Amino acid sequence: MDSNVAPLHVENVSKNFGGLQALLGVNLTLQEGERRAIIGPNGAGKTTFFHLISGVLTPSSGHIHLFGQEVTSKPPYRRAALGLARTFQINNLFPNLSVLDNIVLSVQALEKTKFSMFKPMTSYRHVYLRAEELMEQWGLADKGNTTVRNLSYGDQRELEVVMALAQEPKLLLLDEPTGGLSPAETATVTAMLSQLPRHITVLLIEHDMDVAFTMADRVTVFYMGEVLAEGTPQEVRENPKVQEIYLGSPI
Ligand SMILES: Nc1ncnc2c1ncn2[C@@H]1O[C@H](COP(=O)(O)OP(=O)(O)O)[C@@H](O)[C@H]1O
Ligand SMILES: [Mg+2]
After folding, report:
1. I need a surface site. Which of 97, 119, 201, 228 has the fewest CB within 10 A?
2. Quick one: how far is CA 177 from the chain centroid?
3. What is the distance in A from the centroid of ligand 1 to the CA of 43?
4. Relative to the alpha carbon of 22, which ligand is closest?
């Protein structure tokens, strides 16, 4: 794909925090509909990279384009308006509200960004119907009234993804969607992610190699702030440099 219209095109991006070089000269381009996993040891710069793409942080140098538009120093809401949504490594839910109310807030956020120029506020009924439709679609319908802090971690991760989907993204960033989950919960969340419609391009940070290699069309390996390797799951699995950083054992 022409990098001019790619969902994401990152060019020579670096980020330092004072003396610490968190990212150095990172390049990455996603094809429309692609599933890309980013793997790498703790501290490799993966979450920082997501913060740069979503606009939580600004790069020290380099350029970021979303759908052909330069967004390098644009605020997060401008990037969301272009079709970007993300989840956070740290739980970003409202723990004392119900599942339904959490989703309603996400649907409302979309209504505001998309329609506020045309009408003051879309009807609550419309917003609730959309929230209920999302719960139905993603298997949370029987948990609508459950207070979020009482959900299992697996359901909380799924809810985070549903809240991102409520924004009707074209590009979805998922930061460790299976982080802290049991094997059974990991399997449930992975199954959900594999059902995401292909018109959504997905970039996910994943610590679980099995999930990364199963979900992804291509894998990018971060190591000490740089891209160490990139390729199909098989190419990355067979890469000696990659094997070396994962304790010298085949992965
Ligand atoms: N806001 C910050 N201020 C200072 N250092 C940071 C900040 N965010 C991340 N870092 C550092 O940058 C490096 C990369 O962190 P991070 O992107 O969270 O890695 P990963 O997600 O791959 O584990 C780490 O050394 C981390 O301590
Ligand atoms: Mg991280």
Report:
1. 119
2. 8
3. 6
4. 1
